[in-house]
Specification:
about 350 residues; TIM Barrel
Length: about 350
């Protein structure tokens, strides 16, 4: 592994980060097997692990904690908070008030719970899982600053935060004497390059590290999803729309041909692309099985020539998204029409 510095934190991390979302009930429920996968990644030189309190309702953190016994000091450990730990994406189970968000009240409790599950007294990186429109950024930064000063957190970061909010957060931190966000975790892949327009330039300007998620485009860049035939996979059971988006599938067919011509698997092409951008520090891999991990590790030294990168640019132009990821963040007004329409009572009389 050729280690990179995580922004200006001075922390050295591997270009691949091991994502732990698939460890637990949502992915691999076998704790012993998941621990073996984590150990294999560490033995291969990966020293960066990213999890979250909501992954399998805390089970992922518990598995990671077990795997790191006796190895904690050699690992850069990151977790996230924002959603309720018992998060129900269907909405059938209503969220309990004050057990989610980025308020001081919740973040203090959420981190203590994460530390208990991870069986450690600190995390190297504590991230806000998504923006919280109900909480002032100053409130969030103030709470996170106290956690850093208490020694429970080494650095703080964001995930899926718009460029404008990142700039605003640095403005607040500078003027209020608060700890700055040191990292951002956005989605990034050949099919989703939108962050190249504003997010990556902003994080580079402020010296932030970038830990990108879904470099395989939510599974599409594994080669298991084709235009005229899709295998039944673990991800397909969740009904993700991005797996059947015709625009994305058309691009995948072109990328498969490009990878074949370049003499490499599509997964290696996709991962090499994700860590080529100078604004990207690490790309998160999320293996569910040992075979998936071994496939990805086999491509860790792959580099792409300018000719291959130019051809990728023709298929997926820089700064553009081909379709969207189901898991991608959108501001509340994108989801809720009433937030972008003035009510009749508020409109001036004709």
């Amino acid at each position: 592994m050729r280690y990179r510095t995580l922004g200006r934190t001075g922390i050295k991390v591997s270009p691949y980060a091991l994502g732990a979302m698939m460890f637990g009930a949502v992915g691999n429920p076998d704790h012993d097997d998941s621990i073996r996968i984590i150990h294999r990644a560490l033995e291969a030189g990966i020293n960066f692990i990213d999890t979250a309190d909501m992954y399998s309702r805390g089970e992922s953190e518990e598995i990671v904690g077990k795997a790191l016994k006796g190895r904690r000091d050699d690992v850069v450990l990151a977790t996230k908070a924002r959603f309720p730990v018992d998060f129900d994406p269907s909405g059938a189970t209503p969220a309990v008030p004050n057990r989610s968000g980025a308020s001081r009240r919740w973040l203090m409790r959420a981190l203590d719970d994460s530390l208990r599950r991870l069986d450690t007294d600190y995390v190297d990186l504590f991230q806000i899982h998504q923006p919280d429109p109900d909480t002032d950024l100053e409130e969030t930064l103030s709470a996170l600053t106290d956690l850093v000063r208490a020694g429970k957190v080494r650095a703080i970061g964001t995930s899926s935060m718009p460029a404008s909010d990142l700039v605003r957060s640095h403005w607040i931190a500078e003027r209020r004497g608060l700890t700055r966000f040191r990292t951002e975790q956005p989605p990034y892949s050949i099919l989703n390059r939108g962050i190249e327009r504003e997010v990556l330039p902003v994080v580079e300007e402020f010296g932030m590290g970038t830990l990108v998620w879904s470099p395989l485009a939510g599974g599409l860049l594994t080669g298991r999803y084709r235009k005229d035939h899709q295998n039944s996979t673990h991800r397909s059971q969740f009904g993700f729309r991005h797996l059947t988006d015709e625009r994305r599938l058309d691009a995948v067919e072109e990328l498969i041909s490009l990878a074949d011509d370049a003499g490499m698997p599509l997964t290696h092409l996709a991962m090499a692309f994700a860590i080529t951008h100078p604004g990207v520090t690490s790309a998160i891999i999320g293996p569910r099985t040992m075979d998936q991990l071994d496939d990805l590790l086999a491509g860790v030294d792959v580099t792409l020539t300018d000719d291959v990168l130019d051809q990728i640019d023709k298929i997926a132009p820089p700064g553009t998204d081909i379709g969207t990821l189901d898991m991608a963040y959108n501001p509340p007004a994108i989801h809720h029409p009433h937030l972008r329409r003035r009510h009749l009572a508020d409109r001036p009389a004709a």
